[in-house]
């Protein structure tokens, strides 16, 4: 297979698109800004979904489903919310088409009495339902998650990272107290951090967004922020403390144990198929996709090498017990014995698709009791004995997972700096990366920095150095350093 992937150093944006194409993750659709997620890409999303869904259920959440269409009047009930999403909403105005001269057009007589919004997020329609579900403190908490698609009318799109329609999960919870809702918000932030670091092998910084970057309608927005290989930040997940804003907008009250009626407290939280874009940019190289074993649809691929039907039969008989043993260990293994492709072509394909371990077995290996093992992350090849191979592979998958996280963390740390003056900040930001710097807490200073440098405050970190200082721009007091970067 000829090299079809642009080098990162030459054109990072094209490199990303090449990997999506060569790994067969997604295609552009006929609808501008939307994507067709191919089986390879969807299998990664299924693994992400499975891991996250287990974590949600372990923390007491249940899955439900709410309508795709939201009455326009619902969005009008929460002023900040409608203002935040108004420019991104797709609107349904009519209910049918009619045939005209061999084609179709919108039937003007089918105009809806009230337009419907294709959900950009589901707070409004969910809180309308919660009004019917909640009467007493005995009905709380409600811990609901939804796996769904949403539509946000984006003008500039990129596969997985920003598309008009994308897949996600959105959690929506209702609580009797502020303390309980805040605890839920922080608990789910920690779930996201754990998933990002332990499954995606992607190190993140946890923090709270500034008011200007806050989710529309939230009191506080918490996030996990990651750094891609090109030095740009990616917001990988958010968890919002909604206070009583949506409860008041939809008149959702409960009667407490003393008989007093109170407004419910709320949280919402979500991650999307954007995570696949983050996964690509965190680990992949100039040869193609690199996947952490915990999320790889195929963890081990076996390529038999033979010149005759007899050799083919001998090799397959030789490797069958290993494949069976790997499956017993819950290792996802695939035998690639396609006749119409040469071994070298198969090697290149599996390398481009990020399979963590590739095994090659030929007649000589059968004779010697060996097999060839290639690691995708380091591109190292070794001859190992068949005896004990399953246990060796099982342990190696754990090692690869850990090594990918360590390598990503090392890259991030090397691209993380501190700036004490605005001039120093301007110089550093040109090279990309995370920058910790003091900010005076004002929207004016935040906007000035964004306008002049294209860098944004990614978050006010929850952990790390909390030493007060002076704002690098205004010289006014700063409570602590905040995290800056240019971003996707």
The tally of strands reads 27
Backbone shape: globular
Number of self-contained structural domains: 3
> What oligomeric state do these chains adopt?
single chain
Mean pLDDT: 97
Low-confidence stretches: none
Number of helices: 14
Q: What is the correct CATH architecture of the largest domain?
A: 2-Layer Sandwich
Q: What amount of the residues lies in strands?
A: 25-35%
Query: What CATH first level of the largest domain would be assigned?
Result: Alpha Beta
Radius of gyration: 26 Å
Determine the fraction of residues in helical runs and give it as a percent range: 25-40%
Widest β-sheet, arrangement of strands: 3-9-10-16-13-12-11-24-27-23-22
Fourth CATH level, the homologous superfamily of the largest domain: Bira Bifunctional Protein, Domain 2
Broad structural category: alpha+beta
Main beta-sheet annotation? 11 strands, mixed
Q: Give the termini distance in whole angstroms.
A: 31 Å
CATH fold-level label of the largest domain: BirA Bifunctional Protein, domain 2
């Amino acid at each position: 297979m000829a090299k079809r992937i642009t080098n990162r150093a030459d054109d990072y944006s094209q490199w990303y698109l090449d990997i999506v194409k060569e790994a067969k993750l997604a295609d552009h659709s006929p609808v501008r800004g939307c994507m067709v997620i191919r089986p390879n890409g969807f299998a990664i999303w299924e693994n992400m979904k499975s891991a996250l869904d287990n974590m949600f259920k372990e923390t007491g959440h249940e899955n439900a489903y709410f309508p795709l269409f939201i009455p326009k009047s619902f969005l009008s009930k929460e002023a900040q919310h409608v203002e935040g999403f108004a420019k991104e909403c797709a609107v349904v105005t009519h209910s049918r088409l009619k045939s005209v001269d061999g084609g179709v057009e919108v039937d003007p007589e089918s105009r809806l009495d009230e337009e419907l919004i294709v959900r950009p997020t589901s707070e409004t329609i969910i809180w309308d339902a919660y009004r019917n579900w909640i009467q007493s403190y005995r009905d709380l908490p409600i811990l609901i998650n939804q796996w769904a698609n949403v539509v946000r009318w984006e003008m500039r799109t990129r596969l997985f990272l920003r598309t008009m329609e994308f897949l996600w999960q959105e959690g929506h919870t209702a609580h009797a107290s502020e303390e309980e809702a805040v605890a839920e918000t922080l608990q789910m932030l920690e779930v996201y951090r754990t998933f990002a670091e332990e499954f995606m092998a992607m190190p993140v910084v946890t923090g709270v967004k500034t008011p200007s970057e806050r989710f529309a309608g939230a009191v506080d927005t918490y996030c996990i922020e990651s750094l891609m290989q090109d030095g740009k930040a990616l917001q990988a997940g958010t968890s919002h403390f909604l206070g009583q804003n949506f409860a008041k907008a939809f008149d959702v009250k409960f009667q407490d144990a003393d008989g007093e009626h109170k407004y419910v407290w709320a949280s919402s939280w979500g991650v999307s198929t954007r995570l696949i874009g983050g996964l690509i940019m965190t680990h992949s190289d100039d040869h193609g996709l690199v996947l952490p074993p915990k999320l790889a649809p195929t963890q081990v691929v076996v390529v038999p090498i033979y010149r005759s039907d007899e050799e083919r039969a001998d090799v397959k008989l030789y490797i069958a017990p290993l494949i069976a043993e790997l499956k017993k260990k819950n290792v996802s293994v695939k035998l690639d014995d396609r006749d119409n492709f040469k071994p070298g072509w198969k090697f290149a394909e599996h390398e481009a698709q990020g399979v963590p371990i590739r095994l090659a077995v030929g007649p000589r290996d059968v004779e010697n009791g060996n097999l060839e093992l290639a690691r995708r992350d380091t591109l190292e090849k070794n001859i190992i004995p068949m005896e004990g191979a399953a246990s060796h592979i099982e342990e190696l998958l754990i090692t690869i997972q850990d090594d990918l996280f360590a390598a990503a963390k090392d890259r991030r740390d090397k691209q993380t700096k501190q700036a004490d003056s605005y001039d120093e900040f301007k110089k550093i930001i040109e090279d990309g990366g995370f920058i910790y710097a003091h900010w005076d807490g004002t929207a004016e200073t935040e906007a000035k920095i964004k306008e002049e440098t294209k860098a944004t405050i990614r978050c006010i970190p929850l952990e790390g150095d909390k030493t007060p200082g002076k704002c690098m721009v205004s010289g006014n007091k700063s409570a602590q350093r905040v995290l800056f970067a240019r971003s996707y």
